[in-house]
Amino acid sequence: LNFLISIMGITAYNKIYCWIGKGANTLYVRGTDLAGNKGTADMITVTYQEKKAEGKPGIIPGFETIILIAMLGVCAILLRKRKALK
Fold first, then answer.
1. What is the domain partition of the chain in residue ranges?
2. What is the pLDDT of residue 62?
3. Distance between CA 81 and CA 86 in Å, rounded?
4. 0.90 exceeded by pTM
5. 3-class SS at 9?
6. In the predicted model, what is the mean pLDDT of residues 3-20?
7. How does the average pLDDT of the chain come out, rounded?
8. How do residues 53-81 score in pLDDT, each as one tens digit?
9. CA torsion 16→17→21→24, rounded to 10°?
10. From CA 78, how far away is CA 62, in angstroms rounded?
11. Residue 11 — φ and ψ, nearest 5°?
12. How far apart (Å, rounded) are the C-alpha atoms in residues 83 and 86?
């Protein structure tokens, strides 16, 4: 999880690494400032949703186009050589 906190003009950015399961997950958060003052605990609910595939992805985006252009170039070269041999 990435989070950004802004309190009284002071902004902090931090990361938490955790593993969550499918569905709703509850995280409890308690902050402590540099002076050692403990804040109140708060609860965050995180819901995990799987990304849905959108269509059938290609091998590499744009790769099919490059292959097609290259094959057309090879065909053009072979046709020129064939005409030159006649």
1. 2-48
2. 75
3. 9
4. no
5. coil
6. 60
7. 72
8. 666 666 666 777 888 899 999 999 998 88
9. 10
10. 25
11. -115, 135
12. 5
